[in-house]
């Protein structure tokens, strides 16, 4: 189909601090997390690598054996004062309101869902055919919202474990999900 682009979105590997809300907090990835990303990407055809500038994504990208361009637009949602927190320690009502409607109820001093979608939409539009992006779960969900028209609640229906690889086929005005490997 004329004008179609293929874009691969790889979630970074497991971090040394699992289970926490890791937004802009720069947390290291485990050696196994890097190995998982290398394994999942084996056999995928890509022409360039773009990565979030946070080390948990950048270190996975660097291990893939090709030059990497860092783009901070692919960072995770900024969780503000919740960044680095265990969700179990946060006020239950505030956390529930965030998950229900992350745009109307952003984390304290954090980013609205629409802000994440806006920056990821711009980053996605700049990608040429065959790009592999190493990024975060929230950024991948924002890309799905942008490319496929899903709302915030719908994107949480996707299971995106660490080292998940999602391939999108994007047309100028629409997109369709081509596959998910974990």
Lay out the secondary structure.
Elements: E1 5-11, H1 31-41, E2 48-51, H2 55-62, E3 68-70, H3 92-100, H4 113-125, E4 131-135, H5 137-148, H6 152-155, E5 165-170, E6 175-181
Parallel strand pairs: 1-4, 2-3, 2-4
Antiparallel strand pairs: 1-5, 5-6
InterPro entries: His_Pase_superF_clade-1 (IPR013078), His_PPase_superfam (IPR029033), PGM_Phosphatase (IPR050275)
Protein name: Alpha-ribazole phosphatase
Keywords: Hydrolase
Outline the structure in words:
Helices cover 31% and strands 18% of the residues. By secondary structure, it is α/β, with parallel strands linked by helices. It has one domain (5-181): Rossmann fold (3-Layer(aba) Sandwich). It is globular. The two termini are 27 Å apart.
Fraction of residues in helices? 25-40%
CATH 4th-level superfamily: Phosphoglycerate mutase-like
Rg for CA atoms:
16 Å
**How many strands?**
6
Question: How would you sum up this structure in a few lines?
Answer:
With 182 residues, the chain is α/β, with parallel strands linked by helices.
Give me some keywords for this one.
182 residues; alpha/beta; 6-stranded mixed sheet; 6 strands; 18% strand; globular; alpha-ribazole phosphatase activity; His_PPase_superfam; EC 3.1.3.73
């Amino acid at each position: 189909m004329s004008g179609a682009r293929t874009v691969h979105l790889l979630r970074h590997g497991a971090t040394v601090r699992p289970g926490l809300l890791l937004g802009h907090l720069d947390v290291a990835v485990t050696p196994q997390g890097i190995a998982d990303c290398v394994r999942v990407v084996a056999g995928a055809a890509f022409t360039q690598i773009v990565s979030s500038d946070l080390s948990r994504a950048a270190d996975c990208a660097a291990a893939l054996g090709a030059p990497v361009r860092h783009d901070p637009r692919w960072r995770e949602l900024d969780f503000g004062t919740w960044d680095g927190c265990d969700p179990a320690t946060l006020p239950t009502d505030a956390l529930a309101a965030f998950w229900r409607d992350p745009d109307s109820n952003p984390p304290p001093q954090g980013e609205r869902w629409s802000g994440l979608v806006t920056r990821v939409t711009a980053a996605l539009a700049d990608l040429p055919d065959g790009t592999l992006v190493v990024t975060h779960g929230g950024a991948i969900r924002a890309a799905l919202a942008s490319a496929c028209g899903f709302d915030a609640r719908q994107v949480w229906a996707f299971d995106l474990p660490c080292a998940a690889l999602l391939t999108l086929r994007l047309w100028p005005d629409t997109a369709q999900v081509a596959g998910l490997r974990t």
